[in-house]
Amino acid sequence: MAHRRVIETYYNDINNLADILTKLVSSYRLMVGGADELNKIALSKKSDVKDALKRADSLGSIIDETIKVLDDASYSYMSYCRMKTEIMKDKIQIEFIESEIDEDLRLKD
Fold this sequence. Notes:
Layout: H1 2-40, H2 46-91, H3 94-108
Helix pairs in contact: 1-2
C-alpha cells in the first residue's frame, strides 16, 4: 500500500501545480490589465508602463515553466493510469463483472 500513497501524493502534486498555474494566470491577466489601465492614464510615465509590462513578462516566464513541469508530470501520471488499466484488463474477468451488474439490476427491480 506504500506504493499507493506515493501515487496519491504524486497526483496531489499535479493538482497543486494546476492550482498554482490557475493563480499565476489570474495574476498575469491582472498585471497586463493594470499595465493597460496605467497606459490609458494621461499623467503616467512610459517607464512605469514598461516596468509593469516587464513584471508581467517575468510572470509569463514562470507560467511557461509551470506549464512545462505540469505537462511532464501529467504525462507520467497518464502513463501510470494507462499501465494500471492494462493490468486490470488482464486480471479482471468480464463474466464476474457482468454477473455483479445483473445481480444489482435484479435487486433494484
